[in-house]
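Aim 2, interim progress: modelling of the protoporphyrin IX containing FE-bound target.
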Amino acid sequence: MAVQFDPNAPDTIVDPYPGLAQLRHEEPMHWNPVSRAWYLTRYEDVRQGFRDKRLSADRIRPFVEAQKNGPDGEEIAFLGEHISHWAVFNDPPRHGHLRGLMNKAFTTRRVESLRGGVAEIVEGLIADWKDGEEIDFHQQFAYPLPATVIALLLGVPQEDVDNLKRWSDALAQFVLTSKTNPDKYRIASDALKEMNAYFADFLEQRRREPGELVTDGLISASDEGDRLTPEELTSSCILLLFAGHETTTQLMANGLLALIRHPDQMADFRANLDDPKYVANAVEELLRFDGPSLTSPRLVAEDFEMHGQTAKAGQRLWLWNCAANRDPDVFEDPERLNLRRENADRHVTFGFGIHFCIGAPLARLEAQVAFPILLKRFSDFELLRETQVWSDSYVSRGMTTLPLRVHR
Ligand code: HEM
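Predicted structure of the complex, ligand included:
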């Protein structure tokens, strides 16, 4: 009998791993009637899926085509037009054009230069937390950190960070497909209009006073030879803001929760906070064990066969990053959090192949800076509720709140 897996079931949202393990074991190419999509869950299959030209990243245009005459058609068409400039939703050759310019702007040197600034932001966020105080780690730390860092990276004034967060959350209702909000298209398209206007002004100003920021790199890369149109440039800034926001929030919150639930690993981490190699590996294991990526959806462009089943052109196929990360053929004892795991960095939380996350060095840097500071400043993080509220996104995994009592 076919394996039953309902991604929307409350138990699955809280803990998708047992169901995914069953799929990985018994039905590695699975047709899911709830999502109306094929699922791949084994590590090698997921990596192959990321590389396979028959699987297209362009899942926005067909969605817009199908919905443009529906009740939310106008909003969906507007959102689709802008988001279709995002590298992550494009196939070659356009993907290479959009990504190449972002890569030029997003150099290791630029990211590394943010290390001190990130530490300052982290210290600033926790400065007022008193011994024994109740905090919401998600709202007070994990959520503001990435938006503030991306503002630093793009050179956006810090006083605009609240707007950036608000717009990015609203856009998430469309891009990360919230299952519940009936008004999501209007909310997302209003936010995108405001963002477009904001970034158009901001980019104009940077053009007049260029400096060393990622945005300046994007502007000059787009002005030389392989040009980006003004729409592509604005869209690429919005993509960077958006892609680096909710994901990194979830890395921090899911990561801290995993440490709290594994006191032996928390103690080992605390004993090694000054060892950069240990810290870097610990972050990789947190990304593997319960990272922010649930699935990476693809559209089947040409019939795709695997394990005796055929996904037909036009159908959807989901590459389950988080299931691949717990494949026992690659990770020994995969359900165990082991910060010393030797191959932790083989996870596919940042994807694989041509769309591999451009922001991975920045997300890693944020976590490598933030976790040691948090563990040095606080001797204990006490969970105030055993049950967490997990978000209803199809593609990303994270909580909406994480109430804790902190002890200095
Ligand atoms: C822990 C944090 C993060 C996670 C888990 C993550 C995850 C991912 C994944 C899975 C993809 C590939 C999507 C696909 O193949 O469909 C991706 C792509 C991307 N990410 Fe990230 N990301 C993170 C942080 C960031 C940050 C901080 C930025 C930028 C500031 C960023 C920018 C991007 C961009 C621009 C792409 C598109 C690349 C392309 O299509 O070529 N991400 N990310």
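The chain has one domain: 10-407. Strands lie at 29-32, 37-40, 55-56, 134-136, 296-300, 304-306, 309-311, 316-319, 380-383, 403-407.
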